[in-house]
Structure formats: structure tokens, C-alpha cells
Amino acid sequence: MERKRLEDYAEDIYTCNRTRCGFCREQCPVYHVKVYETYSCRGKMLVGRGLIEKTLSPFEEMAQILDHCLLCGLCQARCALHNLDIITSMRREMVRRGFSTPVHRENVQRILTEGHLLDIRTAPKRQGQIPLYVGCVYRSKPRELATALSVLERLDIHPLIGDETCCGYIVDATGFDKEFEEVQEQLKNTYQQFEAPEILTLCPTCTITLREKYGLPVKHAIVAVAEQLHKKQGIVKSLGFRATYHDPCHLGRMLGVFAEPREILRHLGIQLVEMENNRYFSTCCGGGGGVNAVDPELSLEIAKNRVRDAIRVDVEIITTVCPTCEPTLLRAAGRLAGELGTFVDVQSLWDLLDKALQ
After folding, report:
1. What separation in angstroms does the CA of 32 have from each of 20, 24, 304?
2. Who is most buried in 2, 55, 198, 295, counting CB within 10 A?
3. CA distance 51 to 306
4. Contact 165/184 with Cβ under 8 angstroms?
């Protein structure tokens, strides 16, 4: 599949250069930590112009700055331009010119040779009624996967699980264009559910990738859970505490799943206290776009800023439904507890459902 090159986005880039409104910069989680213009989308657009006009040539620091983008989409939410497409096209340009980060090359090679990004610790197969794509992260987390499957079964959602390989999000996101085509073929040759009318997913990142890059009819499993709870009133006990909900970037901003997790919290008798940045304008946990792989300290600082958002609304629990957001935020919460003397726990929505289901 032929991808657009950076030159194809010239009009968007020049529009940004002419207006320089800065809406993207003010909320960028990376810029808030780095406080350096080029880390913002507006700064990257100037770099893009330099590459198009050949007043700049790719070099190592340019590739590193592009690697420090979360691809969280918050800049695009505040803009009319195709910011994410432009930044990923710049990443592809860096890879084509030989400027790729070693850790990304290693991850890409592992996915191509082994079919997964992480160490697979559980490979369940189930006969069921609706296909479920599990994804690399949940296959590396046996307890978390078992909890989610238990919740689904108790709600009369019976997953069909077969062989699968990595969806390849990180390969595409980090600019390895040709390799992503190989990953796509790998999945298509392995996964047997391409003709299914609907496929459930557990990972928001897998969900958006399977929908946009493979054209599959996917639905995040938490949406199916909300539908079942609406039909089966009175099957959960009230947990009766206050919490805030963190919208994962891919599930919320990119897939539009805002209402269903909040409906589930209401069913569970949890008093929801919204953080200032929520729903479409939720800020990233710091774990997206490959940033955690290249700069774990930056990822941690971004996550700490998100936990501070929860501290400001005086809650003791953050809940979310993303296998990347959960450990990223929990690590930050632990680090902040030592700095501020206040600990905000991070709990998966699957764990809360597991506690509340009769």
C-alpha cells in the first residue's frame, strides 16, 4: 500500500506555519515536560517545512525529537490539520534516511520473527460465540487476561479465541513502512476471523489498528460489557466509592468510546469525579507512540502530570481500561507518593467489574 509522503502534506504544513496559533503546544504533554518548541506539533511542522524545502537535512537529533511524540492525538483534537499523519510521515522519512532508533529496530525485528512484541505468558484458545482478539499486552499478562475473560463469561459474552499475531501498531507508528506490510501479511495469514461480522478486542491500541489498518469490524469489549449491563439490571453490587476515570487516547479520542466506561461506573455505584482534562481532551498517560521505549523518564514525568490531575480533584482511585495506561499511571502514582506523601491508586475497570459482579 502506497503511503503519502511528507510532500503530500505541504499545504497543511504551510497553513500551520502561516497561522502559528499554538493551540497544539499549550496542551502537549511532551512540551509541558520538555518546554522546547520543537517537541510541540507546531515546532515539528517547522521541521517538516525545512525537510520539504530542503533547507534541513535529516540528522540524529531530529529523529530523536520525532521519537519523543506520543502520537496521542491531542494536538489534532485542537486543530483542523492532519497532524498525526504528518508526524508519522516524518518518522517514515527518518527511517528511509537511515535514522531509526535501535530499540525500535529491535522491536520491529522481534515482531517479524516471533509474531509478538512482548513475552507471551498465556496463549488461551477458546471455543465461543464471538471472536476476541487478545493482543500482545494481554497475552503477556495472565492475571489481567483471566479477569477480563471471567467478567465477559459472567455477562454471557462467550469469546472465541484462536491463533493471532501482533497487529503491528508500533511498527507502523515508528515509521517502518515496508516492515508493517510484512506484519499485516503475517496477521492475515494467521488470524482466521477476518470474515466475522464482529470482533471484540481488549486493547484500545489493537482496536484502532485493526479498524483503520485492516478494515476489520472491531468493537472494544468494554462496549459489549456496557450493553450487557444495560440489559441485565441488578446483577452487580454497589462498590460505593469515589473515583476518576482516565480516557485512554486510542479508546476515547480516536474511537469515541466515552459514555460506556462512565455508564459502567454508574452501574457499579461509583461516584465519578471528572478531571479537568477528560473525554476528547484527556491528556496521555505517557505510554504512547513508543516514547516509553526510547525515554522512560519522560514517560514517567508525563504520567506524573496526569496523576496530579487526579490529586487536584481529591480522589484516591483512578480507573481506566487500557493495559498500557494502567501500569504507566500506577508507576507514576508510586513515584509521586514518595514526593508528595499522597498515593492515588490505579485500578483497571475490569478489576472493578470483577469485584462487583454477583
Report:
1. 18, 11, 12
2. 295
3. 34
4. no
CB 60 within 8 A of CB 102: no
For strands 242-245 and 159-160, give the pairing.
unpaired
Q: Which residue has the cell 455508564?
A: 263
Crossing angle for the helix pair 349-356 and 259-267, to the nearest 10 degrees: 30
DSSP SS3 for 236: strand
Predicted confidence at residue 2, as pLDDT, reads 62
Q: Which long-range contacts (CB under 8 A, 24 or more apart) does 192-201 make?
A: 192/162, 192/163, 193/131, 193/133, 193/160, 193/162, 196/130, 196/131, 198/130, 198/131, 199/130, 199/131, 199/132, 199/133, 200/130, 200/131, 200/132, 200/133, 200/157, 200/159, 200/224, 201/132, 201/133, 201/135
The pLDDT score that the predictor gives to residue 3 is 78
DSSP E strand stretches across 210-344: 218-220, 242-245, 271-272, 317-320
Give Dmax (Cα) for the chain. Answer: 65
Q: Exposed (0-12), middle (13-18) or buried (19+): which is 83, by Cβ within 10 Å?
A: buried
68 Cα distance to chain centroid: 15
In the chain, which residues have pLDDT < 50?
A: none
DSSP SS3 for 357: strand
Q: Are 257 and 331 in contact (CB under 8 A)?
A: no
Q: Which helix (H) or strand (E) holds 178?
A: helix 177-190
